[in-house]
Design brief:
The structure holds two protein chains of two kinds.
Chain A: H1 2-27, H2 36-75, H3 82-120, H4 123-129, H5 134-173, H6 177-186, H7 190-216, H8 221-258
Chain B: H1 5-9, E1 18-29, E2 32-43, E3 47-52, H2 58-65, E4 73-78, E5 81-82, H3 88-95, E6 98-101, H4 113-123, H5 128-141, H6 157-169, E7 175-179, H7 187-204, E8 207-212, H8 215-223, E9 224-227, E10 232-235, E11 247-253, E12 256-261, H9 263-268, H10 272-278
Parallel strand pairs in B: 3-8, 3-11, 6-7, 7-8
Antiparallel strand pairs in B: 1-2, 1-4, 4-5, 9-10, 11-12
Helix pairs in contact in B: 4-5, 4-6, 5-6, 6-7
The chains are: A mainly alpha, B alpha/beta.
Chain lengths: ~260, ~280
């Protein structure tokens, strides 16, 4: 019983510390000092650095979507609907979640290992000893950079995914490229775009804050850094998938209510 | 803003007021209580050597003094301000009055030596034109002017410690905390570091807490002083003849202050535990 109590206390403490870190990462923006250059540097690392994997995977996800759905639609003589379904799936769901998972794998781990290494080599303590708040200098720029770049990356991913879909539908289903694009664009409503966009914002926040939390709470030297890196990817990915379900439900409800 | 010794010796603070005060400080972790009621003070310009075996809490005392850790109970006052109970935001200001030299240097490995030393100045929004000459001056003080554009990974262990001292010194804090500054270094490099600490003490008049398990470091600080006129480290013929600031030893054992006194008192002690340090 005591073991369970300790376990519960430890986990509640972790949630509390994570919530505090997340809260401060945003409230730091209201007051100075602000680290604009650090934010730009992180946008380069997170945004530009993630571009190749996002482009590559986006293109092939779009293509494979067309191949999978197109063959089903062909059975009913409705192959032209492929553009509709691929567009909706990419904008509402696959674009944000696949990009989120890719960036989580690349950046959540990167943030955790970078900050974790700084913790074990006392660089974070040195920073505090010199009168700098690590949550302002290290956490807020990473959170802000991810919040700005992930929606952009997702937009690019969706566009490239549609390109991949178009290429696949032209080559495999013999659908006219113009028809594909026309249907893909026409089917989209404002609520679809908002659904995708709101997901990317939440995912970005989760990716950055989980990476920062795991990194800043490293215990146990270099082995601890390795553990934190793995934990960051696992926790961020699971949170993305879980939150995706709830966000979809909320977005569908709101779309039904207001749009 | 030149760091010439002549311009600084005139502004030395007077000995007398406590710069750091620990009052019945306790601190524990999951593995048990490490500090069990530590009480001591360091006067302005005084150097207090924290001596003790590994794991007795020397580093913890330094981290508590700079507010990096909070005590479970007891109070800590630094320059008259209670650092044990104030919020982190207020502590950040107090920490600017304290230089901290970490055991392994704790230099930012993604920044050059020059950027590391200039870090605090950038944070304080100092005019960029003023920063470079100040950094160069401080690096000259630690005899590492040529390392300005190098990265910490390009430096030896001793050089990293000296850069760390330069970084702590850049804003001329009245208090400097040294965490085992000579640990793991060869005797010659250790001597260089100690000479630097002597110069810092006798030129800038800083109050210092120095954690070490090497008794010879403490005695070197107690028996030598830096003469700003000749710019040489000299041995004191007698404690009275020295212009150097007083040096005191604190020996930690089992989470408490086991011994507190002058180097002479430590030398004359017949206590079997202290004798083990003197062998």
């Amino acid at each position: 019983m005591e073991v369970l109590q300790d376990l519960a206390k430890t986990n509640i403490l972790k949630v509390q510390n994570y919530s505090k870190l997340s809260y401060h990462s945003l409230t730091n923006l209201a007051t100075g000092p602000r680290y604009g250059q650090d934010t730009l540097d992180q946008m380069d690392v997170i945004g530009v650095g993630s571009l190749p994997i996002v482009l590559l995977s986006g293109f092939f996800i779009g293509a494979v979507m067309v191949l999978q759905t197109g063959t089903q639609f062909e059975r009913f003589g409705q192959a032209s609907l492929t553009g509709d379904i691929v567009s909706l799936a990419l904008v509402r769901e696959l674009g944000p979640s696949i990009t989120g998972l890719l960036v989580a794998g690349r950046c959540s781990s990167g943030i955790a290992s970078e900050l974790g290494s700084m913790v074990v080599t006392e660089q974070v303590d040195a920073m505090r000893a010199m009168g700098t708040d690590p949550s302002r200098k290290l956490v807020t720029p990473r959170v802000l950079a991810t919040l700005i770049t992930l929606p952009l990356l997702t937009t690019i991913s969706v566009f490239v995914g549609l390109l991949g879909g178009m290429v696949a539908s032209v080559l495999s289903l013999r659908i006219n490229a113009t028809t594909f694009w026309e249907r893909a664009i026409k089917i989209l409503e404002f609520s679809d775009i908002m659904q995708g966009f709101s997901k990317t914002v939440v995912f970005a926040f989760l990716i950055a804050t989980v990476g920062c939390y795991q990194g800043l709470n490293v215990r146990g030297g270099t082995q601890g850094v390795g553990r934190a890196t793995t934990q960051a990817v696992v926790v961020a990915s699971v949170l993305i998938i879980v939150s995706d379900t709830f966000l979809t439900k909320i977005a569908l409800y709101l779309a039904d209510k207001f749009f | 803003m030149a760091l010439s010794s002549s311009s600084l010796t005139t502004s030395l603070p007077t000995v007398g007021q406590p710069a750091i005060e620990f009052n019945n400080v306790r601190l524990g972790f999951d593995e048990g209580e490490i500090l069990r009621g530590v009480t001591f003070s360091a006067q302005e310009r005084e150097t207090v050597i924290l001596l003790g075996e590994t794991g007795t809490g020397k580093t913890l005392l330094l981290k508590l003094a700079s507010g990096l850790l909070r005590p479970d109970s007891g109070t800590i006052r630094v320059l008259g301000k209670d650092v044990s109970g104030i919020p982190e935001s207020e502590l950040l200001g107090i920490r600017r009055e304290i230089g901290f030299v970490f055991q392994e240097g704790a230099l930012f490995d993604s920044l050059t030596v020059g950027e590391n030393v200039a870090y605090r100045l950038h944070e304080d929004g100092v005019d960029p034109e003023e920063i470079e000459p100040r950094v160069s001056e401080v690096l000259r003080f630690v005899e590492l002017a040529h390392t300005f554009d190098l990265f910490p990974s390009d430096l030896s262990g001793g050089m990293r410690r000296r850069v760390s001292i330069a970084r702590a010194l850049i804003t001329r804090p009245p208090i400097v905390l040294y965490d085992s500054p000579t640990a793991g270094l060869d005797p010659i490099t250790s001597q260089t570091i100690i000479s630097l600490i002597l110069r810092l003490r006798d030129v800038y008049g800083v109050t210092a807490l120095l954690a070490t398990h090497r008794l010879q470091d403490g005695f070197a600080l107690a028996n030598f002083h830096f003469d700003p006129q000749s710019k040489k480290v000299r041995r004191d013929s007698s404690p009275e003849s020295s212009n150097a600031a007083p040096t005191r030893f604190l020996v930690l054992r089992a989470g408490k202050i086991y011994f507190e006194g002058t180097p002479d008192e430590l030398m004359k002690s017949r206590d079997p535990y202290l004798q083990r340090f003197l062998i």
